[in-house]
Amino acid sequence: MVQKNQELIVTIEAMGSEGEGIGRIDGYALFVKDAVAGDVVKVKVMKAKKNYAYARLMEIITPSKDRITPPCSIARQCGGCQIQHMDYQAQLTYKHNKVKNCLERIGGFHVVEVEEGFDGTPSFDSVDGKKTIAMEPVLGMEDPFYYRNKTQFPVGVNKEGKAVTGFYAARTHSIIQTEECFIQAKVNEELLRIIREFIDEFGISTYDEETHKGLVRHILTRVGYTTKEIMVCLVINGTKLPHADVLIERLQAVPGMTSICLNVNREKTNVILGERCETLWGQSYITDYIGDVKFQISPLSFYQVNPVQTERLYGQALDYANLQGNEVVWDLYCGIGTISLFLAKSAKEVYGVEIVPQAIEDAKVNAEINGIENATFYVGAAEEVVPELYRTKGIKADVIMVDPPRKGCAESLLDTIVAMAPNRVVYVSCDPATLARDIKYLAEHGYEVKKARAVDMFPNSVHVESVCLLTRK
Ligand code: SAH
After folding, report:
1. Which of 31, 66, 129, 402 has its CA 20 to 30 A from that of 414?
2. Percent above pLDDT 70 for the chain
3. Confidence (pLDDT) at 166
4. Selection from 130-134, 163-167, 275-279, 328-332 with the highest mean pLDDT
C-alpha cells in the first residue's frame, strides 16, 4: 500500500487533462505534476487515496524523448504554462488526443484520423455501432512563443517592500516576480518595469487580498498584433492614482502607446476587473485586425488572446461554414462580433448574439468602421434570445455558428437549433468535454458530425480549442 511521504520510482505512461504525468504501480495510479509521458522519475507521495495518489516530482531519472528544457527559468513554479517542458510537437499530439478522447469517451463517437482538408465521409459511418467523425490534424502554431496580446499581472510587494509584478504560483495567490515571460508580448517587460519603478518611487501602496487594503491590484496590458498599439490599464482599489501625470509621461514615451486607463475594482473578489473604466490618456480603446477586418478593443471586452491562431481558427470555421454568399448565418456567443464580421462578407446576412452589453456596443461600432451593413446584433443569453426570436418571429438560419464559454450550450438552445434546422452547424469550443456532450445531443436529433479539428490557441498551456462541423441529415 502506497503511503504519504513514500518515495517511489515510476515510469510515466500517460498525460492527464491538466498536463500531469500518470504512472502506475501495480495498477495503483500516481499523478505527477511536471512529469511527461515516457519519463522515468523519482517521486514523493504527497496525498494517498484508495486507488490513486498525488506525488511530487523529485528527480528525473531517464527523461522522456518528448521532454525539453523550457526556455523560461520559472516555468515550473509559475501557474501560466503547464507544459512548457514538453517538445511542441508532443504538446500538439497531447492536445489532439485530448479532443479525440472527449469525442470518443463523452460523445460516444469513433474518431477516424484523416489528412488536412479531407472532404468527404470516412468510408464507414459506424464502427461497433458508434458513429464516425473525421478528425483533421491539429492546427499548431509556427512559433509557439510571445503570442499573447493581453495579460493581467497581479501587483504586490516583496519582503523588502519593493513592488513585484508577475504571475501567481500554480494553485496559490503568491506572486512570482517575472522579469521575462516567453508567451506574451515582449514590450510588457518595459511597461512593468516603468510601473514598478513608479510605485516604489512614489510609495504607492499595492493591494493585499487578505486585508483588502492597498491601491494597485492588477495591471492589464493589451497590444495590437498588427497595429502595435498598446493599452495599459491599472486596476485600482480606489478612485484616484496619485502622481498619475508622472506615470502617464513615462508610459507615453513607449512607442505604440495608445491608451492609458484606470479600472476601479473595490470589491473583495478575485475577479480582476471592475465595471468602471476611466481613460487617463489617449483613446479608450486600441485597434487591431483579424484578416482585413478592423476591431476596436476596450479594456472590458473579450478578445481572443492569440491573434495569429485566431485568424487560423476563424479561417477553419469559415471553411467549415462553406458559405456561398446567399446564406443567413447566426453567430451565437459572438463577443465583439469577431466571427460575425469575419463571416459577413461571405454571407447574405449575419446575426450575432452575446450576453455582455458592452461587447455588443463594440460589435456595432466594429461593423460600422468596417462598412459592414449586413450584420445585426442582439444582447442577451443565447438560450433566451434565440428561442424567443424563433417563437415570435420564426427566424431562420442556413448556418449556425456557436462559440460558447467552457460550460457549453444550454439544452434549450440546442433544441432551438434543431428546430431552426440549419444545413450546417459549426461549433467552436474551448472545452472539448462540453463540445462532445453537445454534439452528441445534436447527433441524436438529426445532425451528422462530419469533421473536427483541434487548434492550438494557447501553446505551452494545457488548454485546447476545437472546431467541429455538423450537417443536417
Ligand atoms: N466568438 C467570440 C467570443 C467567444 S467567447 C470570439 O471569438 O471572440 C464566449 C462569449 O460568450 C463571451 O463573449 C461571453 O461573454 C459570451 N457568453 C457567455 N455566456 C453567454 C450566453 N449564455 N449567451 C450569450 N453569450 C454568452
Report:
1. 129
2. 99
3. 87
4. 328-332
Residues with CB under 6 A from ligand 1: 302, 304, 333-335, 338-339, 353-356, 359, 381-383, 403, 405
DSSP for residue 142: S
Mean pLDDT across the chain: 95
122 pLDDT higher than 70: no
Half-sphere exposure of 16 (CA within 13 A, CB side): 15
CB atoms within 10 A of CB 171: 7
- Chain Cα centroid distance, residue 75: 19
Phi, psi of 382, deg, nearest 5: -55, -40
181 is catalytic: no
Q: Phi, psi at residue 152, to the nearest 5°?
A: -125, 110
Q: Once rounded to an integer, what is the mean pLDDT over residues 247-274? A: 96
- For residue 109, the CA-to-ligand 1 centroid distance in Å is 27
Please tell me the distance between residue 166's alpha carbon and the centre of ligand 1 in angstroms: 28
Residue whose CA is closest, atom 23 of ligand 1? 381
d(CA 358, CA 379): 9
Please report the atom of ligand 1 found closest to the CA of residue 356.
Answer: 15
Which atom of ligand 1 lies closest to the CA of 404? 9
pLDDT, tens digit (0-9, with 9 covering 90-100), for 350-396: 999 999 998 899 999 999 999 999 999 999 999 999 999 999 999 99
* Pocket residue to mutate for ligand 1, from 301, 305, 333, most atoms within 8 A of Cβ: 333
Which grid cell sits at 148?
499573447
For residue 426, how far is its CA from the centre of ligand 1 (angstroms)? 15
Residue 123, pLDDT above cutoff 70: no
HSE-CB of 240 using CA atoms within 13 angstroms? 3
78 touches 176 (CB < 8 A): yes
Span 72-94, average pLDDT: 93
The burial class, CB within 10 Å (0-12 / 13-18 / 19+), for 383 is buried
Cell 459577413 -> residue: 344
**Interval between CA 401 and ligand 1 midpoint (Å):** 12
Tell me the mean pLDDT in the region 205-233: 96
Q: What is the pLDDT of residue 201?
A: 97
* Residue 175 binned pLDDT confidence (cut-offs 50, 70, 90): confident
What lies within 8 Å, CB to CB, of 440 at 6+ separation is 106, 107, 108, 109
- For residue 299, CA distances in Å to 174, 240, 276, 303, 359 come to 25, 18, 10, 10, 11
Find the catalytic residue in 72, 409, 430, 468: 430
331 Cα to the center of ligand 1, angstroms: 10
